[in-house]
């Protein structure tokens, strides 16, 4: 028995040692695995662990400011208080909201939305209850804080336009990023981030946007922030200084505000700086910052006076008689007419079996170039345009900046239209008709221009250089702001003598007796302006109307069939500095409606200039009285 | 071979109680206390530096368990031999009872509430099975072990509770029971080719057995085979555990500084994944130290077994040591992504009262074997065998 037992024991010992060896191997395997994970692969897992726990959050940079040329704020960032609720910090979300509702109005819809959002998110994620609290509301909520567990008042930034509608079209507005605007820049995906949607805000969006800061926070598996590890503040956007003069801009808006729909531009003829750019009616860009209401949006879209459109750059109008300088200059430059060559105006011109009327029924009699502009005689232009031809006229128009983009730093600029024979052939597939040259010569028919183009044309006539308008003092690129080199615009390649003749004729319009714009002249010595009126037809005057009722007066027509009133001018006559154009949609006569506005704007621009140079405007004769002086009854050309 | 009794005073192997306490393996007690101490520290860390809710309760359980362990240790080994079958049948009946109760309760029911204590019959079975098998093979000669009919009762003794536990369903415990049973068979001298045969049959049966697995058990196996397949679902646990361990590096991130554990990326950090937390906070050095302590305890078990003069004690010693080893191996291999997640805790370290009790009771038995190593017991089990 004993040896058997020792047999059994020996067997046991052998088996136990084998088993123990097996366990040793397995434990060694565990150790090896541990070594592999913790030494060989450690770096990889370290990275993975950091990726787990560290969450990078973007800090939206403050948007760059926009100021006028003297530093007056035009677009700023306002502290914006919003109130948020954290579900886990309040015993009863609904009850807290109901108490809050008694302090600041929320309404049942908001309470329901917040309650739903809060239930859906993780308990520690704040849900916005209301945006844009007034300081008063913030104070009231703060006082009642003990009754409002889980509520947080948070300060953010939102865009604010202190001038409201005054610069709506130029500045544009910002609004939340839409799906198709996402570029992959993670900043755009931040909730509540806004980008420029129109105007300067859009054109210079990248420069104004700045660069995002980052905050590294440690989060747990549920995404709850445990602590901030590192914070790097972003760079705020660049400040963009506009060429606009806020005071002149305000005055321009005020001056247009009597009209249903109008646009005006004032610019410096030497450097192309736009001092005022206005389109009336306007809208309040602040309404867009936090999401515009459906109702307000619809009312803006459906308004017949198109408040959303910047008519100064997006509105195209037949320039009417303001185009006559182009035609005359084209004739002079081509040597086809001489300054003193006269044509007889008997009130109309017949071409084939069509009759082309002058705006003055009885005709102007013998007209030379100077008088044709001064009196805005149509027949003179019917005569000379046949000799010059449409293509030469178009070439001169292009030289003066019509028919092509001015390159202004605003979105959606329209280039208007200057027709040529080729253009008609290609676009309409028809041959150019001789009569169409006649129509074009008085700025009607196919010819279209924006108020900004007309202002540019005037500036070029006044300066003799190919001036281009711009809106910012500095060169603004997405990379930043660099000061603009004094821009030397190229010469126009037009004889100085001929330009002087045109300017003299424009002087005749306003400053010579019986000039069409004499009533809108500036009667202050040294500040006089030279200009040209334009009244462009938007309807066809039939032969039947002429024969029966006579040409209907604008006041007898519905608004949208009335003529557009235009006026362009530069001042001072002797040493030009400013150019201005005004278009009053369906406003009637150019010299009676648009002229006085141009006069006031150019006068204001000069007065401001003098005032800023320390020469008090009070030293000058009272301009208001002089302005009211009715020289003679305004005559409006057709 | 006469009386089926021995009386205190008449028993030549009787050792006075004071002497037994002196004979107690205090080194082993110290090792066990050290392991448990590591457990307390990790539970303290898991609660972000608080004794609540885990560390304090674990300490109390350890205190009770350690007392029980010593009582068991100083109890004569022959008492445990006599109680072997009895405890096995009690455990089996309780398993059947939870099975029935579980059916009524319409869910996985593994507990019996005894009012003061939540008894888990499967844990009791882990010890009882070792005892019962040791008792059975103690009574067999080497030749007997070679007779297949005599192997059928012990095989049934393993399969019956395994089947019941598998139905609960508790795959981890089932594996522990079968492996623990297999160890006893092995030590008793069952031929290697028989193991090979059973293993081969088992492998062949895998496709059939697969159909009986619950969906979550199937998922665990599939996830183990390809964890990247489902990184946010079932594979999340393994992936996060590996990240935690790997990012711990050589020396770890420091006590209570494990980001994976403390930011809750690591699941079940106080129970099944506590080794991961240790590895993250104390690195390879800490992990190796713990592994070393376990290796020492296991080696101790072998020493006790080899020095024991009776077959029952030897089988029990290696049996409980092997169960202990299996816990350690399965748990650590699982958290390192070597085997599927099977829900086996790390003995003495993981939070949990029942497992703590099981382990301490089995160490009590191991120490009882050690104290009473010189007692010779006949095959019949109730005699000193010297006549």
TrEMBL record, chain A:
The keyword Cell division does not apply. Keywords: Carboxypeptidase, Cell inner membrane, Cell membrane, Cell shape, Cell wall biogenesis/degradation, Hydrolase, Membrane, Peptidoglycan synthesis, Protease, Transmembrane, Transmembrane helix. It holds the Pfam family Transpeptidase. GO terms for biological process: cell wall organization; peptidoglycan biosynthetic process; proteolysis; regulation of cell shape. Residues 60-229 form the Penicillin-binding protein dimerisation domain. Residues 612-638 are annotated as: Disordered. One of its GO terms (molecular function) is penicillin binding. InterPro entries: Beta-lactam/transpept (IPR050515), Beta-lactam/transpept-like (IPR012338), PBP_dimer (IPR005311), PBP_dimer_sf (IPR036138), PCN-bd_Tpept (IPR001460), Penicillin-binding_protein_2 (IPR017790). It is found in: Cell membrane; Membrane. Residues 612-626 have a biased composition (Polar residues). Residues 263-602 form the Penicillin-binding protein transpeptidase domain. Its main location: membrane. It is a single-pass membrane protein. Gene3D superfamilies: DD-peptidase/beta-lactamase superfamily, Penicillin-binding protein 2a (Domain 2), Penicillin-binding protein 2a, domain 3. One of its GO terms (cellular component) is plasma membrane. PANTHER family: PEPTIDOGLYCAN D,D-TRANSPEPTIDASE, PEPTIDOGLYCAN D,D-TRANSPEPTIDASE MRDA. This is Penicillin-binding protein. It comes from Thalassospira tepidiphila MCCC 1A03514.
TrEMBL record, chain B:
It is found in: Cell inner membrane; Membrane. GO terms for cellular component: cell division site; plasma membrane. Its EC number is 2.4.99.28. Peptidoglycan polymerase that is essential for cell wall elongation. GO terms for biological process: cell division; cell wall organization; peptidoglycan biosynthetic process; regulation of cell shape. The chain crosses the membrane at residues 23-47, 59-77, 83-100, 171-188, 195-213, 282-303, 315-342, 348-369. GO terms for molecular function: lipid-linked peptidoglycan transporter activity; peptidoglycan glycosyltransferase activity. Keywords: Cell inner membrane, Cell membrane, Cell shape, Cell wall biogenesis/degradation, Glycosyltransferase, Membrane, Peptidoglycan synthesis, Transferase, Transmembrane, Transmembrane helix. The lineage of its organism: Bacteria, Pseudomonadati, Pseudomonadota, Alphaproteobacteria, Rhodospirillales. Pathway: Cell wall biogenesis; peptidoglycan biosynthesis. This is Peptidoglycan glycosyltransferase MrdB. It comes from the Bacteria. Pfam families: FTSW_RODA_SPOVE. Belongs to the SEDS family. MrdB/RodA subfamily. It is a multi-pass membrane protein.
């Amino acid at each position: 028995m004993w040896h058997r037992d020792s047999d059994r024991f020996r067997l046991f010992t052998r088996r136990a040692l084998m088993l123990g060896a097996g366990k040793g191997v397995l434990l060694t395997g565990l150790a090896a695995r541990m070594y592999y994970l913790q030494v060989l692969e450690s770096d990889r897992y370290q990275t993975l662990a950091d990726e787990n726990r560290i969450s990078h959050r973007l800090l939206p940079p403050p948007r760059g400011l926009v100021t006028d040329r003297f530093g007056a704020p035009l677009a700023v960032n306002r502290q914006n208080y919003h109130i948020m609720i954290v579900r886990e910090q309040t015993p009863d979300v609904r009850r807290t909201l109901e108490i809050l509702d008694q302090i600041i109005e929320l309404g049942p819809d908001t309470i329901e939305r917040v309650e739903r959002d809060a239930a859906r998110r993780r308990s520690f994620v704040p849900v916005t209850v209301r945006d844009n609290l007034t300081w008063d509301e913030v104070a009231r909520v703060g006082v009642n804080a003990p009754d409002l567990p889980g509520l947080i008042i948070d300060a953010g930034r939102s865009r604010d336009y202190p001038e409201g509608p005054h610069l709506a079209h130029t500045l544009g507005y910002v609004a939340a990023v839409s799906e198709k605007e996402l570029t992959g820049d993670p900043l755009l995906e931040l909730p509540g981030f806004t980008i420029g949607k129109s105007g300067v805000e859009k054109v210079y969006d990248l420069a104004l946007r700045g660069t995002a800061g980052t905050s590294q926070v440690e989060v747990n598996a549920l995404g709850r922030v445990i602590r901030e590890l590192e914070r790097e503040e972003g760079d705020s956007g660049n400040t963009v200084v506009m060429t606009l003069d806020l005071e002149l801009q305000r005055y321009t808006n005020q001056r247009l505000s009597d009209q249903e729909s109008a646009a005006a531009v004032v610019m410096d003829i030497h450097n192309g700086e736009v001092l005022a750019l206005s389109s009336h009616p306007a809208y309040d860009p602040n309404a867009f910052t936090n999401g515009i209401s459906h109702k307000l949006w619809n009312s803006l879209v459906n308004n017949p006076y198109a408040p959303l459109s910047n008519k100064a750059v997006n509105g195209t109008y037949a320039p009417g008689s303001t185009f006559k300088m182009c035609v005359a200059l084209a004739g002079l430059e081509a040597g086809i007419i001489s300054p003193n060559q006269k044509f007889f105006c008997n009130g109309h011109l017949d071409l084939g079996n069509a009759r082309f009327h002058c705006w003055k029924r009885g005709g102007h009699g013998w007209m030379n170039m100077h008088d044709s502009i001064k009196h805005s005689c149509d027949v003179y232009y019917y005569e000379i345009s046949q000799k010059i031809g449409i293509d030469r006229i178009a070439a001169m128009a292009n030289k003066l900046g019509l028919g092509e983009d001015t390159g202004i730093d605003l979105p959606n600029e329209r280039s208007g239209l200057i027709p040529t024979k080729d253009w008609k052939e290609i676009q309409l597939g028809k041959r150019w008709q001789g009569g169409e040259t006649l129509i074009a010569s008085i700025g009607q028919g196919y010819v279209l221009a924006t108020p900004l183009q007309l202002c540019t044309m005037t500036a070029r006539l006044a300066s003799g250089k190919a001036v281009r308008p711009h809106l910012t003092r500095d060169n603004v690129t997405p990379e930043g702001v660099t000061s603009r080199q004094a821009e030397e615009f190229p010469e126009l390649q037009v004889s100085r003598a001929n330009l002087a003749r045109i300017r003299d004729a424009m002087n005749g319009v306003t400053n010579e007796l019986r000039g069409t714009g004499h009533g809108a002249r500036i009667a202050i010595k040294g500040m006089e302006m030279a200009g040209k009126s334009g009244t462009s037809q938007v309807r066809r005057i039939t032969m039947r109307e002429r024969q029966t009722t006579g040409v209907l007066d604008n006041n007898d027509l519905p608004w949208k069939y009335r003529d557009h009133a235009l006026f362009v001018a530069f001042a001072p006559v002797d040493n030009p500095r400013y150019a201005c154009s005004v278009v009053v949609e369906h406003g009637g006569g150019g010299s009676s409606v648009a002229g006085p506005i141009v006069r006031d704007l150019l006068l204001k621009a000069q007065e401001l200039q003098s005032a800023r140079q320390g020469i008090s405007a009070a030293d000058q004769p009272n301009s208001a009285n002089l302005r009211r002086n009715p020289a003679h009854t305004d005559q409006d050309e057709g | 071979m006469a009386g089926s009794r021995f009386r205190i005073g008449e028993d030549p192997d009787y050792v006075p109680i004071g002497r037994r306490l002196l004979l107690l393996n205090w080194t082993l007690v110290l090792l066990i206390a050290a392991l448990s101490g590591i457990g307390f520290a990790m539970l303290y860390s898991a609660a972000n530096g608080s004794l609540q809710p885990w560390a304090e309760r674990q300490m109390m359980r350890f205190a009770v368990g350690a007392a029980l362990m010593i009582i068991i240790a100083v109890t004569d080994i022959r008492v445990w031999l006599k109680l072997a079958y009895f405890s096995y049948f009690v455990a089996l009946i309780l398993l059947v009872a939870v099975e029935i109760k579980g059916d009524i309760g319409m869910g996985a029911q593994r507990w019996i509430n005894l009012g003061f204590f939540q008894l888990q019959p499967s844990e009791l079975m882990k010890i009882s099975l070792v005892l019962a098998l040791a008792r059975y093979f103690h009574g067999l000669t080497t030749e007997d072990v070679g007779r297949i009919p005599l192997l059928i009762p012990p095989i049934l003794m393993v399969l019956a509770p395994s089947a019941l536990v598998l139905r609960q369903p508790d795959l981890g415990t089932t594996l522990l029971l079968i492996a623990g049973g297999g160890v006893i068979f092995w030590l008793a001298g069952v031929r290697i080719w028989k193991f090979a045969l059973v293993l081969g049959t088992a492998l062949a049966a895998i496709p059939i057995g697969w159909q009986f697995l619950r969906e979550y058990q199937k998922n665990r196996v599939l996830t183990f085979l390809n964890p990247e397949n489902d990184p946010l679902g079932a594979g999340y646990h393994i992936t996060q555990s590996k990240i935690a361990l790997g990012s711990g590096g050589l020396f770890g991130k420091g006590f209570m500084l494990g980001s994976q554990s403390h930011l809750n990326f690591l699941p079940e950090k106080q129970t099944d994944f506590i080794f991961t937390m240790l590895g993250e906070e104390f690195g390879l050095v800490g992990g190796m130290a713990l592994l070393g302590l376990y290796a020492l305890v296991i080696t101790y078990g072998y020493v006790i077994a080899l020095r024991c003069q009776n077959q029952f004690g030897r089988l029990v010693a290696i049996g409980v040591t092997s169960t202990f080893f299996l816990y350690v191996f399965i748990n650590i291999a699982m958290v390192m992504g070597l085997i599927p997640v099977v829900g086996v805790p790390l003995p003495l370290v993981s939070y949990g009262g029942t497992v703590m009790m099981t382990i301490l009771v089995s160490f009590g038995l191991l120490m009882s074997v050690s104290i009473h190593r010189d007692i010779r017991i006949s095959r019949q089990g109730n005699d000193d065998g010297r006549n």
